[in-house]
Write a structure and sequence with these properties.
The complex is a heterodimer of chains A (221) and B (282).
Chain A lengths: L3 H34 L2 H32 L3 H34 L6 H26 L3 H5 L1 H21 L4 H36 L11
Helix pairs in contact in A: 1-2, 1-3, 1-4, 2-3, 3-7, 4-6, 4-7, 6-7
Chain B lengths: L26 E12 L2 E12 L3 E5 L6 H8 L9 E9 L2 E2 L7 H7 E4 L10 H11 L6 H11 L3 H4 L12 H13 L5 E5 L7 H14 L4 E5 L3 H7 L2 E9 L5 E10 H6 L4 H7 L5
Parallel strand pairs in B: 2-10, 3-8, 3-9, 6-7, 7-8
Antiparallel strand pairs in B: 1-2, 1-4, 4-5, 9-10
The chains are: A mainly alpha (221), B alpha/beta (282).
Chain lengths: 221, 282
């Protein structure tokens, strides 16, 4: 195969995306654990860890810029480079969502919680985490069918997210829990956005394989 | 999240696609099952494509793929080679280019050509441009015609004060633009360019490419290029040719894929095109 160095650079870039995925997933896990255990120290760690994610994203972005400038990739190579950049942006945002969850958890640590809702959010979070894994794996294996399965997983999260507001409304008259409930609506929304980001990464898998960009369902709306 | 249904019929101008500039509406060359051989050796086999009016059409592919052979079919340059044989149909504005009664000299007036190496006559800049019109009896308003051709080729400002000087004193890039001006001076319909910038430095190359963008408003351009990025930059349509090895060990060129340039360089349909444009060929 010709262009050995270029192929090596592409492989390195793809490994950098998966590496960014791994650290973003670590942030999601940390935020979910902190939410469940109300661990303020862990919240701080998740917030500080975002610099690590941002650094990796910026390194990835720089690699993409260099590849475009020096190797002028076209066709399948161009699609891969664009998809990696796009995927990287979504992973960086997943990191940002985790930070927001950690900050809200920290702010709510002294407020009165409702056990049922915490459990629901945690389950939702685990689903979102799984979605990010599926998105990264299906991208690595160029498995369009598996990437498309993200739509169904996302629907489950969306459904739970829609229920959260209703659950909070049930205890909004209780001043001790109302503020906590409001904050949890935002946490729920953050988890829901992580799912959407995973779907977006899945769409990039289809773009790399087929050259056509199509939104999977209505996940981004 | 729920998605509001969007009624696209109510979007008005927002939903309208950008209007085209009218280029590409008509077919200039309609080529069907074209095969060319030299003394019995097949150089290009069964190529079918249409060249559209005011488009820049690029032919790309490795050496020996038949792209230069093909472009020479358009102005019957292969007629000048002993043993060359052209089979298939080549319609030019619906007329058979190889039909009885078609005068190859008239064909070459309408379909001009610019070659890889600039080849000005060893005459003055003015005479280089005036030569074709004089031969064709276009003697009226010759000065204006020369100026117009040089302006169209973006060379006028550089040579207007030295029209009587020998054209061989111009730089390589200027000489190539002179050759383009010379082709334009006889009011052609089509300009064929066979590797027009491959002997030029990057700045002269980008001048030629800018010129191609300007010229496509008035002319149909077919360009053969080894430089894939050049095809990507200048062409509306790109044809990729490859070499096929026959059972008897012989080789000939084939047209693999012909599509919009953006499609060829972002999502080609054929694996061979993908391998070539991404540099995985060979």
């Amino acid at each position: 195969m010709a262009r050995v160095e270029f192929q090596h650079a592409l492989d390195t870039l793809e490994a950098a995306l998966q590496d960014l995925g791994t650290v973003s997933l670590r942030a999601v896990r940390g935020a979910l654990d902190a939410l469940e255990s109300q661990d303020v120290e862990l919240c701080d760690e998740v917030i500080a860890f975002d610099d690590e994610i941002d650094d990796r994203y910026h390194r990835l972005e720089k690699m993409v810029a260099q590849l475009l400038a020096l190797e002028t990739p076209v066709a399948g190579d161009l699609r891969l480079v664009l998809a990696i950049l796009h995927g990287g942006i979504h992973l960086e945002r997943i990191g940002d969502q985790s930070v927001t969850i950690a900050k809200l958890t920290k702010l709510s640590a002294t407020l009165q919680q409702r056990a049922g809702l915490v459990e629901g959010l945690h389950e939702m979070g685990e689903r979102a985490e799984e979605m990010v894994r599926v998105a990264l794996d299906s991208f690595a294996s160029r498995d369009v069918a598996r990437a498309r399965s993200l739509v169904e997983l996302d629907e489950l999260i969306d459904r739970t997210n829609r229920r959260v507001a209703g659950q909070v409304l049930e205890f909004v008259d209780d001043p001790a829990s109302a503020e906590w409930g409001m904050r949890m609506i935002v946490v729920s929304r953050c988890i829901e956005r992580i799912g959407d980001n995973a779907v977006d990464i899945g769409e990039q898998t289809e773009f790399v394989v087929t050259g056509e960009f199509r939104e999977f369902g209505d996940a981004s709306h | 999240m729920t998605t509001p249904e969007i009624d696209r019929t109510r979007l008005g101008a927002l939903a309208e696609p950008a209007s085209g500039d009218g280029r590409g509406d008509d077919v200039v060359f309609d080529v069907r099952d074209l095969s060319v051989s030299y003394s019995g050796n097949v150089a290009l086999k069964d190529a079918t494509l249409q060249v559209r009016e005011n488009y820049v059409t690029a032919f790309i592919g490795p050496s020996g793929c038949g792209k230069s052979t093909f472009i020479r079919v358009f102005n019957r340059m292969n007629d000048l080679i002993d043993g060359a044989r052209v089979e298939g149909t080549v319609l030019y504005h619906d007329r058979d280019l190889y039909g009885d009664g078609v005068d190859p000299v008239e064909v070459r007036r309408r379909i001009g050509m610019v070659f890889q190496k600039p080849n000005p006559f060893p005459k003055s800049i003015y005479d280089n441009i005036a030569f074709g019109p004089r031969v064709l009896g276009m003697k009226k308003g010759l000065d204006e015609r020369v100026e117009r051709a040089l302006q169209s080729a973006a060379l006028w400002d550089e040579v207007k004060d030295r029209l009587k000087e020998n054209a061989l004193g111009l730089s390589g890039g200027q000489q190539q633009r002179l050759c383009i001006a010379r082709a334009i001076a006889v009011e052609p319909d089509v300009i064929l360019m066979d590797e027009p910038a491959s002997a030029l430095d990057p700045i002269s190359t980008s001048r030629i490419e800018d010129l191609i963008h300007d010229l496509k408003r008035s002319y149909t351009i077919v360009i053969v290029t080894h430089n894939m990025q050049q095809a990507a930059r200048v062409a509306d349509m790109t044809a990729f040719f490859s070499v096929e090895v026959r059972d008897d060990g012989g080789r000939h060129g084939v047209l693999v894929e012909y599509d919009r340039t953006t499609k060829i360089f972002t999502n080609p349909s054929d694996r061979r095109t993908e391998d070539y444009v991404t540099g995985r060929f060979g």
